[in-house]
Amino acid sequence: MRAYDMDRVRGLPLFSDIAPDTFRVATAGAHLQRFPAGTMLLLEGDPVDFLYVLLDGQVELHGTWNDRETVLAILRPVSTFILAAVVLNADALMSARTLERCEILMVPGDAIRTAMRLDPRFGVAVSRDLAGCYRGLVRTVKNHKLRNSVERLANYLLALRAADNSGSVVRLHHEKRVLASLLGMTPENLSRAFSALQAYGANVQGAIVTLDNVAALEALAKPDPLIDNHAPRGGEIMAEADAEIWSSEWNRAAALTGAQTAAGVKRNA
Amino acid sequence: MRAYDMDRVRGLPLFSDIAPDTFRVATAGAHLQRFPAGTMLLLEGDPVDFLYVLLDGQVELHGTWNDRETVLAILRPVSTFILAAVVLNADALMSARTLERCEILMVPGDAIRTAMRLDPRFGVAVSRDLAGCYRGLVRTVKNHKLRNSVERLANYLLALRAADNSGSVVRLHHEKRVLASLLGMTPENLSRAFSALQAYGANVQGAIVTLDNVAALEALAKPDPLIDNHAPRGGEIMAEADAEIWSSEWNRAAALTGAQTAAGVKRNA
DNA sequence: CTCCTGAATTGATCTGCATCAATTCGGTAG
DNA sequence: CTACCGAATTGATGCAGATCAATTCAGGAG
Hints:
Chain A has 269 residues and is an alpha+beta fold. The first copy, chain A, has helices at 3-10, 13-16, 20-26, 83-88, 109-118, 120-146, 149-164, 176-182, 187-198, 214-221; strands spanning 31-35, 40-42, 50-56, 59-65, 68-75, 79-81, 95-98, 102-108, 169-171, 202-205, 208-211.
């Protein structure tokens, strides 16, 4: 494994704060692996033997039931996934599939669990990571239960904008049908939702979306810091309280709500 | 605080495995408090200063946006809530409101975070707890995105049955309008969903539901261990992998999916 | 270049669920 | 007991989003 990759792993909030020894224990037996696009990395119900660290490519997490399927999250580098299952040594609740060619570090779950027992700092890091994941899902549930599909799309676009550069052009990172499933709608409906947003200055051209009237779009979307992790807070500078972690499944990922920003600990920076 | 209550707190998976010293540190400054029904314990957006341990009564966690409100979870004793916010020292993403008279132990967040730094076993316990909460939410999202309202209700009833006694009579623990919001529908629609389930042998009489044809109900509901935490697994006895924790926000709670069982570590026991 | 295939769009229609409105039910205070 | 009030139910109607079907579009192979 290249030193460059090792540094990237070390830089994750999950690992950045721990002792060198702990890091060695935690990543003992880890191996880098490459997968072609469309590979099933993990099937829901399977025992989870590894913590996955996505170093390159895109991975989709999805769930199925009764012949239906829904995308739960889309991950982009660098992020870890299925930490919760690893911590509990439990079966996966989600399937993982590569959307494109991927480079993934596979860290044995045993090593992670051992390291947690050794170094309280690592236990704290894992806890903080999982807490961030949990809160990401809370946001997702609120997003889905409180908003309709056009509102979800509008917020997704604003989140992308915030993550990218806050400019007036935004690039979609996934196929529209995948995005549709992520946002909880059909591809047909996503198309129509995009049309509906033309009235608010949003125009799609393939993967490129131009936002000509951000104010109008925001008036519709009403982004909320308690749902959309990128949304601005009211009030003054926040303290440590603001340091919510997006290291794992949601970091850099246009995750469930698509609301998560790229930065692990930015926000009001 | 009564010794009896202290024992109940100590018995939570979050605390059961840690050293006495750690427990002392973690619960330093904790105080027991009583609240009448309908009290707002916490407003979303507020800083979270305490870990709450519900010892008696019922608490509802809900979220709001744009004048809409949705119930995210209903908690019953003994369970903790907003651990994630405490770990991150972050603002609450959900509001908490007592549904009835409640008795709650309020543990200062600082104490929790300090204890995590001291005792790796506590860090592990917190991680496991949060991992369980996270997985509960994954189940919830799958439940909502993959099932329609009648299917959700049917599974909710089967989950209640599994938690209670697996008999043919089940008691609803909450007002129907609260249950409706939890399941992501309107009260009117919940009524109609109950009517629809008459064809599957389910009859409601106030808070009492009789299930005369569990087989038919199951054929409709198709409970799945990867969504419904009570559902039977296929295959052989499970190992440690099976010990998913439902200590916190979901323990004994007819939580989001209503799928969580009463036992912390039962399942296949 | 053309052809081919899957993605995306567009239109027509259907349906699950929400909404609005009107009773009915059930628990509580007097 | 009766009166009252919020919860629950039931009915009528509307709408968001799913489904079905038909093009259109875009990318990759030959």
